[in-house]
């Protein structure tokens, strides 16, 4: 018996997805209603529907994760031997304080949707906005799907999970991605990092989840 | 061949063993070490554990080979010993039984990585890996193969294909377990019904579930499985949900707590019960005590043909809803669609898949046959892509066997394959593939020619069915296409199709289908022709049709015909549909009542279009206004601008929201484009100023900034949008080049906010003539003051006022 992702990159490709109207409406900050049908402004609803339909044809959900043992040290705090400095930020030290393992994860919806957005941006600014917003949420959605695999593994071993935390949150610097991405062989998902530590495709998410000792 | 173990299962409950890992750890197996290696290194310990279980009552013992396959042994540099490890394992288990009656199962766990299309390991490689281990187990003398802990149907399919291949070396029973999580689905989202559909497609002898959850969460899953199949069921629960104690994973349920569940499992349909993680011989002893007196529940498999996607099962047959197989993923006669496929693009395929799904298709036919494309590769690509966006079962449609095969290979469900016919060649090529991949097949009742009479068509059907059954394909997996002929060309043959449906039902008891649109070819008002035929065909017993699910007449015919053919119990579906339709209609009506006054003059109409975001007709309306003699300045300043301002107020009052603002702003932009040449010819509207907009370096969040740009443009500002992730230097350079009045910066991350200060410091240090306004979700008024920004906008409603006010201050100085 062995933790499946321990020191082992698990890749999940072709992640099935659903674009839920209620979530899209929430993402667009339209309160109170759950479906496009309920929108008073059916002309706007029509464009949102177009964005959803279009997004369905341009999303390619892939992700991967790896679990690494955490080392706890009086002086150095908590760290992994593969990249000893990436968890130095106080917020991450706090997050992983009670953890035995950390799972690093990556998720992306691929480049097609954002390429489409960029290609229509000048002629169809509103379409670009609706589509970009749907894509932004879907990057999060695909991340949730990858996270669900991680969570299942964590629970299977009797651990609790921490929240999912990303570089760029609070004091956790984006630069750590320079070390996180190679640990996950990000290039296999087609994700690269720019000089200013931005992931490309931009509809990508990197994050960590801790395996927390319970009770 | 009859297997003793299967014969026994008809009248008794058999007991499996419990966890091996837990007991080996007690004997000193280090954490993280491969238990399989102990078959060679510590055989006495393995033997002892088996003996403990056999003493406790196990009839079936799993050889210690869960991880004795290529990838997993490779991790311990032990791949070279694969055969020895598997042989030793079977030997030890056999030895443990001694004289006692019992069965040794060769144990197969997941291969160690995820399988395509879900993972990276090629499907055929996965088959090879499983085959290699299973072959060793069969040669070593295992009595059956037990596959365990599979979390993905696709990996299970690879294992089952391998299992059916080793059965050719020596026929032995196959037992296959999936793992379900607490929500009653597998990790990759398959429901119990679909799991059963796939496993039954491969003719497994015993199917079931193990690991992952405690017994309480297994109960509902077992109930569903028991209702879906007559196949024997095996259950191996963990000893409760794991908890972490002092760095060790503990399974908390006691043997006394577990045993009653085992009894319950048998009451709802289990035939084999054992234990997974955390269970020990004591659990098995108590379970044995309770179960040995019990008799298995008698169950039968529901009638009909079953097909499924990874997560959705559909039945074709009497008493089941009529199956509408969407016909639209097909390039025949469609130029754009063909071109997309030629370029390897899947967007139009996916769009058709979604449209048909939303229109209520129950399954989708997939045909990507474009001349001169690599059809097998395209089929694989399409099948994978479609699965991501709809969960409908697929009908894999090609005249090339290779395309059919690659379609089935990449399909993590049980496909329906379109098609085979009565030609010997076709039968020999297609049916073995159907068998291999556990699929169902559409069989055309024709040879090279379509026979006119129903009786002749039945003959062809009989020929195909016999060939299928000889190969071990059950008749439920053959669906006959009775061939709908074009009525304008072959009136008699057309009505014979109806007789063929009846004959096949009567004589063969198989499900039927047909390609509907053919019927009406060449006639006017085609819809009514083929839908009338459809009603008659359903009355004759037709179970499904390949058709256009977007056709509303068809939908009504199908719903109506279901009432008379036992396909809509107590008319529930029909009534529910009509009620929902009525409710939607009423909701829509009440929406219309609240609509305000109607715009009458063209100015009012333009105002309304901008306010409401009626983007499509704004250009025409604007032109109308001009034609009526309105001045372009009036349209812009007196009509459009107040409209967008009113919307801004509604936004401020939280009555309208960003998407409305965007739609309106876009509408106005399209109107202004009509006015632009005239405005410019007349000297132009005075520009309100030039603004450089950018999302700062390190930040990709640009949705908010983009909206701000649209708004500013509408209010007459000249906006240069530099995009996202823009370094301070580039921003300042652009400001200089464009002689800007103002710089607008956006940031959404605490880590990038400080980039704004970099820009402002530079402006202040060099006393550059630009005002700087900032915004973005992380920023606050306070932060803006701290870094000495000239203005701050909380949201898009504030962006124009803020810019107006800083520019005003600038000009009043
Ligand atoms: C959508 C989104 C994404 C999308 C981006 C799509 C896109 N093109 O923008 C995706 C999924 C790609 C994404 C990725 C990441 N994200 Co993000 N994302 C968001 C999210 C959920 C919403 C942002 C949004 O679009 N809001 C809607 C728009 C309309 O609002 P707005 O931007 O605030 O703009 C309004 C106003 O602020 C104002 N305004 C905006 N600009 C300006 C400018 C001026 C001059 C003025 C006057 C006004 C103004 O007007 C706008 C309209 O009202 C936020 C969370 C949040 N609630 O804000 C996180 C968030 C911004 N992301 C965050 C992070 C960390 C990331 C990642 C770095 C995480 C990671 N490590 O993977 C990645 C980066 C990926 C990469 N490629 O490198 C964090 C930032 C943390 C922080 N506070 O520092 C946030 C806050 C999430 C969080 N939970 O903490 N993200």
Give a verbal description of the structure:
Chain A has a single domain (10-212), classed as NADH Oxidase (3-Layer(aba) Sandwich). In chain A, 35% of the residues lie in helices and 20% in strands. Chain A has helices at residues 21-27, 42-56, 90-95, 112-120, 125-156, 177-183, and strands at 10-12, 62-69, 71-73, 77-79, 99-108, 160-161, 192-193, 199-200, 204-212. In chain A, the strands form three sheets. A five-stranded antiparallel beta sheet of chain A has the order 1-2-5-9-6, with helices on both faces. In chain A, strand 7 and strand 8 (199-200) form a beta hairpin. The model of chain A has no long low-confidence stretch (mean pLDDT 93). Chain B has 813 residues and is of the alpha/beta class. Chain B is built from 31 helices and 25 strands. In chain B, helix 23 crosses helix 26 (658-681) and helix 28 (728-737) packs across helix 29 (750-765). At the A-B interface, strand 1, helix 2 and helix 5 of A face strand 8, helix 14, helix 15, helix 22 and helix 26 of B. Cobalamin sits between chains B (658, 700-705, 707-708, 744-746, 748-751, 773-778, 793, 795-796, 799, 802) and A (132, 136, 139-140, 166-169, 198-199, 202-206).
- Overall pLDDT score of chain A: 93
Strand order of the largest sheet of chain A: 1-2-5-9-6
What is the mean predicted local confidence, pLDDT of chain B? 93
Ligands, ions, cofactors: cobalamin
Helix content range of the residues of chain A, please? 25-40%
Question: What is the helix/strand order of chain A?
Answer: EHHEEEHEHHEHEEE
Provide the β-strand percentage band of chain B. 5-15%
CATH architecture of the largest domain in chain B: Alpha-Beta Barrel
Biggest sheet overview of chain A: 5 strands, antiparallel
Going by helix content, strand content and strand pairing, the class of chain B is alpha/beta
What overall form of chain B do the CA principal axes indicate?
A: globular
What is the straight-line distance between the termini of chain B? Answer: 100 Å
Q: Output the structural class of chain A.
A: alpha+beta
Number of helices of chain A: 6
Give helix % range of chain B: 40-55%
- Tell me, what's the shape of chain A? elongated
Going by CATH, what is the homologous superfamily of the largest domain in chain B?
Answer: Homocysteine-binding-like domain
